[in-house]
UniProtKB/TrEMBL annotation:
<keyword id="KW-1015">Disulfide bond</keyword>
<keyword id="KW-1133">Transmembrane helix</keyword>
<dbReference type="InterPro" id="IPR039391">
    <property type="entry name" value="Phytocyanin-like"/>
</dbReference>
<dbReference type="GO" id="GO:0005886">
    <property type="term" value="C:plasma membrane"/>
</dbReference>
<dbReference type="Pfam" id="PF02298">
    <property type="entry name" value="Cu_bind_like"/>
</dbReference>
<dbReference type="InterPro" id="IPR003245">
    <property type="entry name" value="Phytocyanin_dom"/>
</dbReference>
<protein>
    <recommendedName>
        <fullName>Phytocyanin domain-containing protein</fullName>
    </recommendedName>
</protein>
<dbReference type="GO" id="GO:0009055">
    <property type="term" value="F:electron transfer activity"/>
</dbReference>
<keyword id="KW-0325">Glycoprotein</keyword>
<feature type="transmembrane region" description="Helical">
    <location>
        <begin position="140"/>
        <end position="160"/>
    </location>
</feature>
<feature type="signal peptide">
    <location>
        <begin position="1"/>
        <end position="23"/>
    </location>
</feature>
<keyword id="KW-0472">Membrane</keyword>
<keyword id="KW-0812">Transmembrane</keyword>
<feature type="domain" description="Phytocyanin">
    <location>
        <begin position="24"/>
        <end position="127"/>
    </location>
</feature>
<dbReference type="InterPro" id="IPR008972">
    <property type="entry name" value="Cupredoxin"/>
</dbReference>
<keyword id="KW-0732">Signal</keyword>
Amino acid sequence: MASRMVLVGCVLLLAALLQGATAVTYTVGDSLGWTTPPGGAIAYSTWANQHTFRVGDNLFFNWTGNHNVAEVSSETDYDNCNQKNVEMTLGSPEVNVPLTTKKDYYYICTVASHCSLGQKVKISVKSASGSPTSSTNSTASSLAVGSFSAVLFSIVIAFLH
Ligand SMILES: *[C@@H]1O[C@H](CO)[C@@H](O)[C@H](O)[C@H]1NC(C)=O
């Protein structure tokens, strides 16, 4: 009986660790949303510093009014709000942006002088938890984790009966 309890405990621990690897969707700015922040760019740098972003997570940009989300690849362009090398622009609110790579992502708003006024955010993405290498197929790995957890759960149920 004791060994059975230990086994069940181990399986539950493993399942919990795997659950920790599932993707998170972060609403950029939380209740502030994606806007020209009243106090400048510190609003978004403070927000970003409160989270650990990992490969497979998503950013949710939501706004009302005239804004957009543009990605720039260099920190210099980000710092200077240079819009000449924008990689992609998303013009509709309520947009999900997947973080697929372990790197620094730079997002700005290219409307008027919004970027200079602080509507920009730098997101430093770390490896997916539990895997040292970056995963570019987060959906597939989340599904794999989900089904593996289901199998472990079945094993636990089988032992409890
Ligand atoms: C996006 O923001 C609008 C305006 O604040 C809000 O009404 C809407 O519920 C938000 N959407 C989501 C999915 O949070």
